[in-house]
Amino acid sequence: MGSSDTGLNNDDDSATVSDDSNTETDSDMRTETYEECQSSHPPSVFVNDEKVLAFHSGQYYEAKVIRALYEGNKWGFFVHYTGWNKTWDEWVGTDRLLKHTEENVQKQKALKERLEMERKTKAVQAPQMKPKNSGVSRGRKRKNDSLNKEKDLVPLEKLVNLQIPSTLKKQLVDDCEFITHQSKLVKLPRTPNVQDICTKYCEYRSKKDVMMPESTAEIMKGLRCYFDKALPAMLLYKSERQQYTNAIRDGISPSTVYGAEHLLRLFVKLPELLAHANIEEETLTELHQKLVHFLRFLQKNQSAFFLSTYHVPEDSEANTIKQDH
């Protein structure tokens, strides 16, 4: 939603207007259900018809709460994304919603800027292939470009639904703020680094389950490999590249230098990366479970694994950042 990467397109104005009118009618019909829930359950953080920010496919969008329902000892909210066809309406948990405040709107913009920067970086790094046959007509070239773009898009149903806990989402927003707005950097090398964190997770799992399957260790090994390959390609801001060049030399693995801050960025990209991988459905289901457990482990140890603030770079690094900005 919101970018060509997800393969979704905005509706025309007439469709949007009719959706909004239908949405309001649905809300009026469901108000009683919300009031009944409020009288018999803990109060909801969000109410019917409230304007909110909803997290979807890596970023926040303006949305409206259509219905609130208390079920299974937790609140759920049926939301409509403002300006989008109501086929995208969905049920979400409290962890995917933010109050529509000025502070949260700024966080939304910061996260959007970060994603834009990542897309631009990826585009710059993509190999520029020139057509061998210069006689190809412009019309045919446009058609071929369009077909190639469609092939690159990953259908939503094929994406692994990795729900990043709300406190870790905030970590991502703060991460973007430190780098892009305050011109700070993560001080390297990090302790614990990505390799240390993966090892700690295996130790944690073995204590909880003496017969810990070998697959857990294999998944952690695979995660480190993904991280080492993805870091220079799609996980760095432009202002971090010189630091990467200085830190990663002589065959050093990024997973032994970088820490949780950059590892968490990988989880934003993982759904798309896994969708392109040739993995059997059964294996993918097990992998999804392990990754969700790993995210909870990161959340549980957030204060120990993540920096609360980044450092102001030295003169040489600062000059690089100024040039990049």
Automatic annotation (TrEMBL):
Q: Which domain of life is it from?
A: Eukaryota
- Annotated region (Disordered), positions in chain: 1-42, 119-148
Localization, per the record, is:
Nucleus
Every copy of the MRG domain together lies at 141-310
Biological process annotations from GO? chromatin organization; regulation of DNA-templated transcription; regulation of long-day photoperiodism, flowering
Can you cite an annotated GO cellular component? histone acetyltransferase complex
Annotated GO molecular function terms are: promoter-specific chromatin binding
Q: What is its main location?
A: nucleus
Q: What are the UniProt keywords, alphabetically?
A: Chromatin regulator, Nucleus, Transcription, Transcription regulation
Pfam families xref list: MRG, Tudor-knot
PANTHER family the record matches: MORTALITY FACTOR 4-LIKE PROTEIN, PROTEIN MRG2
Q: What InterPro entries does the record tag this protein with?
A: Chromo-like_dom_sf (IPR016197), MRG (IPR008676), MRG_C_sf (IPR038217), MRG_dom (IPR026541), Tudor-knot (IPR025995)
Signal peptide, first to last residue: none
What's the name of the protein? MRG domain-containing protein
Q: Which residues form the Tudor-knot domain?
A: 47-98
**Lineage of the native species?**
Eukaryota, Viridiplantae, Streptophyta, Embryophyta, Tracheophyta
Task: Give the organism the record lists.
Answer: Salix dunnii
